[in-house]
Amino acid sequence: MAAQWSVPTGVHRRYNPLTREWVLVSPHRMERPWQGQVEALPQVDLPAYDPDCYLCPGNARSNGERNPDYQGTFVFDNDYGALLPRKPASPDGPRAMPALLVSHPERGICRVVCFSPRHDLGLAHLPVEQVRRVVDTWTQQYYELGSLPFISYVQIFENKGEMMGASNPHPHGQIWANESIPTEPAKEHQAQNEYLMEAESCLLCDYLAQEITIGERVVIENDQWLALVPFWAVWPFETMVLSKRHAPSLLHLTEPERDGLASILKRLTTRYDRLFGVPFPYSMGLHQQPTDGDDHRAWHLHLHFYPPLLRSATVRKFMVGYEMLAQPQRDLTPEAAADRLRETPED
């Protein structure tokens, strides 16, 4: 039984120990009328195969290369990657720059991961065995890219839906492997390392234990993983998926833990899709230890889901104004969001 614990009910701020940032919570604003932008409903009747899709098997991509007739996952270097593996040329040599104008060349590799040959089946609708193949592909790519001597961090993510900037409806994710550690993982890197030094324990292990004890923000769990709405969540139905055992990266997972990850991903995304009865848009990503060869025992593997929908399938949250200039703000409490997701059926 969940322990009794009283959450604030009025306007208050909540602290995120992973990023060391605050979020303003204003529950009373859920009562305000909405006369703002209304989003169009996403397309739901996609075909199993689209001859015009540049990610479907056998089709030509925009650069003229033709996809193989793949049957499982399919990985290829992004035709328009934001990072390039070659070191930028400096024909004029280094130049002195003013102290406040700092830049560094950045190498990296960008890849696309098609989850399956099916144009119409995302993580929520694939058989769990196919989701497990996606997890295995992520793991293999994390190892392959992270083993390159110039790669320090491998960011695996998925943008689902036009609302989140997906350029193609064929279910797929991306992998950007950086020469440096990007900003968001760097925040978590510092916080986890310093917590380990000060508390002599893992930040997310301790946080997970508290959330299990309290219980009211837990959405679903299995033997190896737990999905919850973080106490400090910014997005309305934001969730975090945590390994119950301390594991710094995908490479540290056992076979049952990989199975458990595939299962909880399918279950969580199914609840998302059923919440408002539409394919639920989100940005999702894995955060795990850097690949720069240093000691990263403080890292605890976890996934973030950032979905924008707020009140319905057509009303989204915007990060504007105060949230861009001051700090994040949310209306729906994390506890209310977790309750909505718990009540949403998986079948």
Q: What features would you describe in this structure?
A:
- There is one protein chain.
- The protein has a domain at 183-343: 2-Layer Sandwich (HIT family, subunit A), CATH 3.30.428.10.
- The protein contains 6 helices and 14 strands.
- The chain has helices spanning 128-146, 183-199, 203-214, 255-275, 322-325, 334-343; strands spanning 12-16, 21-25, 74-77, 108-114, 153-160, 172-178, 218-221, 225-228, 239-243, 282-287, 302-306, 309-312, 315-316, 329-330.
- The strands form 3 sheets. A 9-stranded antiparallel β-sheet has the order 3-4-6-5-10-11-9-8-7, sandwiched between helices. The protein has a 3-stranded mixed β-sheet with strand order 1-2-14, with no helix packed on it. Strands 12-13 form a two-stranded antiparallel sheet.
- A hairpin with a 4-residue loop joins strand 1 (12-16) and strand 2 (21-25).
- The longest helix is centred in the C-terminal third of the chain and has 21 residues, at 255-275.
- It is globular, with a radius of gyration of 21 Å.
In short:
By secondary structure, the chain is of the alpha+beta class. A hairpin with a 2-residue loop joins β12 (309-312) and β13. Helix content is 24%, strand content 20%.
Estimate the global geometry from the Cα principal axes: globular
Query: Which structural class do you get from the secondary structure elements?
Result: alpha+beta
- Listing every helix as H and every strand as E from the N terminus to the C terminus, the arrangement reads EEEEHEEHHEEEHEEEEHEH
Beta-strand fraction estimate: 15-25%
Q: For the largest beta sheet, what order do the strands appear in spatially?
A: 3-4-6-5-10-11-9-8-7
* Average pLDDT reading: 92
Strand tally, please?
14
Low-confidence stretches: none
